[in-house]
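#help-structures
NK: newbie question, is this the right format to request a structure? protein is Iron-sulfur cluster assembly 1 homolog, mitochondrial
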Amino acid sequence: MSASLVRATVRAVSKRKLQPTRATPTLIPAAVSKIKQLLKDKPEHVGVKVGVRTRGCNGLSYTLEYTKTKGDSDEEVIQDGVRVFIEKKAQLTLLGREMDYVEDKLSSEFVFNNPNIKGTCGCGESFNI
């Protein structure tokens, strides 16, 4: 079993044009850089896997884990030499999203920006389209 990497949240992105919702997630350069850095010390792993589990206001929370193989039903996103695998259960919730990595004084985390939502609840897990 793989070890969890970090936590992730969903954010509303304002002042952007709507993106098609049938696209696989796009990796922002900061996310690509961080994933490369994390995998540098784990040569036996080929990428990271994004999944969901039941938790939060809307019932789902994203998980990120190192992975050695692609699962049969995983969607594979390859960008700038980084491989991200998306579990079947998480695929619909990540369509058209942007995966970013954000650091500030108090936290560092992968963030899934959704340019198609107008707002979120206080915890950032429920959203309006």
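mod (FA): yep, format's fine, and the tokens are attached above. The first strand starts at residue 8 and ends at 12.
NK: thank you!
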